[in-house]
Design a protein that fits this description.
single chain, 375 residues, mainly alpha, two-stranded antiparallel sheet, two-stranded antiparallel ribbon, 13 helices, 6 strands, elongated
Amino acid sequence: MTWSLALVLLGALWLAWSNGANDNFKGVATLYGSGVLGYRSALWLAAIATLAGSLLSVWLANGLVQTFSGNGLLSSGAMTPAMLAAAGIGAGATVLLATWFGMPTSTTHALTGALLGAALSAHGSVNWAVLGGKFVQPLLLSPLIAIASTMVLYYALHRLRVALGLGMDSCLCVGEKREAVAGFFAPVAAVAAAPSLEVAQGRLASCSARYGGRFVGVDVDSAVNALHVLSAGSVCFARAVNDTPKIAALLLAGAVGGALDAESALVLVAAVMVLGGLIQARRVAETMSHGITALNHGQGLSANLVTAGLVLGASNFGLPVSTTHVATGSIFGIGAVNGKSDWRTIARILLTWAVTLPLGLVLGAGVFRVLVALG
């Protein structure tokens, strides 16, 4: 294997790790945020569903392999190993930087920018019509469609629940309350805990909200939770179907060592993605689960159904939508419905999205220049 092909392998696996760290948890963020599952349980569900989606993507998303191998992006010629290596390294660095700050970002945007930067640095021009049709339009439209679809779906499910007479159970939260009081023999600044009982009515903020009643003999709350877990697994599965071929395309287009076929490339990428998610997902998990808006079980279910449907549909048509934008946009939609959005966190996420593609472009172009200078 030549040095250039070894760098293609390094770039692709670096990007796979970064993608897993930033993206794997996004499908199960609503489970963790609404209290259905704890962090570790949600993380392992994400890992298993991601692995399944990655392995099946060879049959479900061949169009994405073609798109992200750079086919058609250049006006003439194909992507060279040095360009592919630069794209993988540049995109991986972009995604990992966002992960370090706990910001969910788009691997698709980062990879698109890095491919564009490497192509412009090598040839000075690209096929702008292909760039606009295959890349830009799906990426811009997907979050807007996700927000609108989630709002409509949740409103429809809410109206159905009300029409069926299924309410939300309240609860009483009873616990020990400690107040600071001045000690008798101590200076005024010293305090001692005075425990007392406190009783308060609460819903989501103070205790777990539950759906009350039964429907056709089934406990509604248990059914919603089961569907929520299933939908979260579906989102992780759909994300892996959509993202794995994009990264494997770098290996296949680079023809690493002539030893990797499509199945081998996808398995290798899948394994590294799962490891990246298991080891480095915590910061993005906290932002997605608790930083955007408060969620109850039904709201999380609605967001996940929209995300899974849009991402799987896009994968089937070879459209490179950003799972990050779809999943986060769905949670944005819930925040718009329940009025509990954290606008500071949302502003930081939107800024990250705006920076991702141009940063990927700059890094892709810069890495390519360094590789050329090194021969």
